[in-house]
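Field reference: sequence -> structure
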Amino acid sequence: MCTLKSVYERCCCLYAVTRMRKVRYQCAVALLVFVVWAIVYIVLNNRLLELDENRAKNVHISGEVRNPVFTNTQNRDTKEKFAGSCEEKTNIVFIKVHQAGGGAVSNILQRFGDQRNLTFVLPRDDQTDSAGWPYCFHTSHMLPSSNGRYNILCNHAVYNRRELNKVMPIDTTYVTILRHPEHHFETLFNHYRFADKLGIHSRDPFSSFLHKPEEFLSRFAANEHERFLLRNPMAYDLGFDPENFTNEEAIFDFIDDIHRSFKLVMIADYLEESLVLFKRLMCWSLDDVIFLKPSDAKIHSEHRIELSNDIREKLQKWNYVDNILYRQFNKTFWRLIHSQGPDFYEEVEQLRSKNKQIFDFCMTEKRVHSMIDRDGHFVTGKPPTVQIPFDNMICSKLDTSVPDYTKYLRAKPNQYIKWELR
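Structure field:
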């Protein structure tokens, strides 16, 4: 009995040892498989990283950094400018803020679309160059096109994404422009002669207005459209409801919406830099974004040299939303520029050189004059004696105002249904 017990215990021991060896073997195999898999993963991952780095070196980035304005989707969209694969974009909405450099951008868009025979969202009313302003844009404010399709909006319009989505293609790029609020508001105040309209007869009407703006604003009738330009005009053009001018939550919701909706917010104070960013975003050429820059004397005559601290503080308080809006997007603007690489400023200098070349040519030839004849056609000056790499009507088109160019576009045959409006 004892012998049988010893045999049994020995068998159990051998079984346990055998089982333990089997378990150890299985663990060893599993460990070996894991190590091999880890090595393969690391090698492949490093290889992929090397491929990405090599690809990045060959990419000409048009790009953006991740920031409040550009979402991840937008970031990919504008960084896909690979050499030889960048496709020119032709669908665009430009929200033209009053007196913020928008005229130069609208002229660029009008020339671009005219050259390619694109269809514009034009004002229904032929007596104005705005599509329904100061009311939020609505499809009833626009001239019907013959084919029902549209590519570009660049006339004044209050931003209304819901209505714009009804007429613009799904791949439309939305851009706008802002200007330093201090210079912007004073320029606007003087341009629209608000001192006369408000009956301000002091030696310094602008300061007088800011001392008691609510009182002066009440002098405008409720139906006076220009009254919407007297407080936070940039925010108003971008669709912000004046009833929320003091509502902090509504203000930041509004700014977040602009962040999400607009691929680029240009800064008028740095127009060449803005247009190079725009050119890269749209996959255009530098020749597409040339413009006639006004003289420095004209620019500096738009606003005084310095405002007192008291007036500046009152101005910031009165246009509180515009100040926040500008600060936010000015920061984004410079982040974007800093992401561009050394070739960015090379393009900026090239654009400045082209602008100077065309300005000197147009002034020398004295070809900047009344550009539209009675039939709505462009007219040219005397034949050029200096050769430049542009068409003969470039001076005429560059110096044509947005209202006059709008008139010319309306006159294009078979593009718009005008008989419905009679």
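Note: The radius of gyration is 31 Å.
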